[in-house]
Structure formats: structure tokens, C-alpha cells
Amino acid sequence: MSDYLLEARNIKIHFPVYGGIFRRKVGKVYAVDGVSLKVKKSETIGLVGESGCGKTTIGRALLKLYNLTEGNVLFEGEDISRLSDKKMRPLRRNMQMIFQDPFESLDARQTIGDILEEPLIIHKFGSLQSRRKEVLNLLSRVGIPQSAVNRFPHEFSGGQRQRIGIARSIALKPKLIVCDEPVSALDVSIQSQILNLLLDLQSEMNLTYIFIAHDLAVVKHISDNIAVMYLGKIVEYADADATYENPLHPYTKALISAIPVPDPFVKNKRTILYGDVPSPLNPPSGCRFHTRCPVAFDRCRIDEPELKQVAAGSEVKEHLAACHLVNS
Ligand code: SF4
């Protein structure tokens, strides 16, 4: 059996764009353009980058919620990239998702009990009595009083709703959870409580997380390894300590420089990235980051840098970067 719970091999997800009176295909959005990842059991990979970098698309593709244009996804060594919905169904219980917006991800017309019981019914979990007992267990596990079972989502705060979303994601005792910006919509004071809950559940249940965020500060404490993404590609990959202490790619450096320092006497030299992420419909030539990179030079506009092990890094630890300056 593979050492890895999940492997993505050079995955590409291109969405067709249609236009004109005859709705002909006029282009494509290069949402993800050649990403490889390996995730070991019980570890957390942080996927970080600004909005529009393709993080959420990858997360969904890994759960086979999107079809791949190219490449393969292996779950426990089995290639699931082209499995039919019917063949995917039994695997789905092992692969769950926590959504960014706890307001939208819970059906406002269902009680909390019904929301948590639904996946158990779909996957034919036990009798009515055992399902109800399990729903109460789930609520306790995520720190929501059992009396909430007959209440509706609108009666809870954002943080409580996210706890209920987490309870639903662990209902089937999955192996992998894709956490899609699970704390971005929450107050800073609540964010750490939710992150701690995710960490507790991970150690109790041996969960593996793909943790998506646009903010490097958020993934710092939860991730073993971090993949920094820019415009559909990974530009740097390393363990969490190396990413923070020795960032090599100019984009990672800029993201780290934007993390606020809690000490008012320490001045952080911030690298400002001007402009927005270019359109994935027409990505820049050469290095995709060259239009915003503060240290770009001529070669960057023509030659696309390869994501490879950095020469200065340790041979034992994986530290990959896609930049001509790092790998020259
Ligand atoms: Fe900047 Fe060039 Fe490195 Fe790209 S390859 S990150 S443009 S220096």
C-alpha cells in the first residue's frame, strides 16, 4: 500500500469559455495548470495564495467534485481520476469538505439534528436510534450543547455554525478533509478556537487535512507542509518552519511580509505587491509572477521556471521553488 493517503500527479483543470451567438468555445480558464502533491496520512498540507490562484479548484478536484483535464489523483494508491459517480460513492465517506461560509453551507430549513443525520442516512449508518445517538455525540465532540439538536442554523453564531459544519464533515469518520478557508469568515478571536478544534479532532481521529487559506498566518500553526500557489501553479513547497524562516520565492516572501507583527516596536519591512493576480484566461508568459515580481529580470518574461529542489536546501528535507533566482 502507498505511504501516501493522497497523490495528485500533474493535475490540470481548464474550464472552457463560450461566447458569441453560437456559444462557441472561445478560450479557456487555466484554473490549475500542472500541480503535483503528495499527502501522508495524518498530516496537514496548507495551500496558500491570493484569491484566484486555483486553491479551491484544486481542493474540489482532489475530492473529484471537478473533472480533471489532465493528470491523476490517487487515494490510498487507487487512481480515482476517472471513476464513475457510482464507483466514487463508497469512497466519498472517506473524503469530506469543510466550507468557507458556515452561513451558506448549512441548509437553513433543516434542524441541526437533520443536518448531521443526513450523511449517516445517505451512507446507511445504523438504526434510527443509533443515528440519533451519534448526532448527539457529534455535537458534544465539537463543543455544541446537545440541546441544539432541534434548533435551526440561524439561531447560532458564525463560529458555532462552523463547528456544526465540522461536525457534519466528521460524521462518517473520514480519512481526508479538505478545509476550504474554514476560518476566513470568522472573527480573529474565534479563528483560533476553530483551529484548535481541528487540531484536536486530527489527533483523536488521525485525520488528514488539506487546509486552504489566503493568509499564511492562518496556516502557520496547523500545517506540516505548505504549498504556496500563484495563478494555477505551486511556486514554493516546504515544511511549515522552512516556509516561515527561510522563504525563497519572491511571492512567498511578499505574503510573509504582510503578516502583522504583534509587537508595536518591531517594524516589519513589507513587500507590497502591486496590481491583482492576472487573469487565468490569459496567464503571463514565462514566469507567471513576473508582472508583479519586485525582482523580475529579462529572462523571467520568456522562460518559465521549473518547480525544483532548491540547491541551497538540505538534501533530506524537501524544499521546492520555481524561480530563476533561486535555482540559477
Ligand atoms: Fe520573480 Fe523571475 Fe523568480 Fe519569477 S522567476 S519569481 S519573475 S525573479
TrEMBL record:
Matching PANTHER family: D,D-DIPEPTIDE TRANSPORT ATP-BINDING PROTEIN DDPF-RELATED, TRANSPORT ATP-BINDING PROTEIN
Protein name: Oligopeptide transport ATP-binding protein appF
GO molecular function: ATP binding; ATP hydrolysis activity
Keyword check for Glycosyltransferase: no
GO BP annotation list: peptide transport; transmembrane transport
Any Pfam family hit: oligo_HPY
SUPFAM superfamilies to which the protein is assigned, alphabetical: P-loop containing nucleoside triphosphate hydrolases
Similarity section: Belongs to the ABC transporter superfamily.
Gene3D superfamilies: P-loop containing nucleotide triphosphate hydrolases
Keywords attached to this entry: ATP-binding, Nucleotide-binding, Transport
NCBIfam families in UniProt: oligo_HPY
Organism: uncultured Desulfobacterium sp
ABC transporter domain span: 6-256
TM regions (residue ranges): none
Keyword Transferase: no
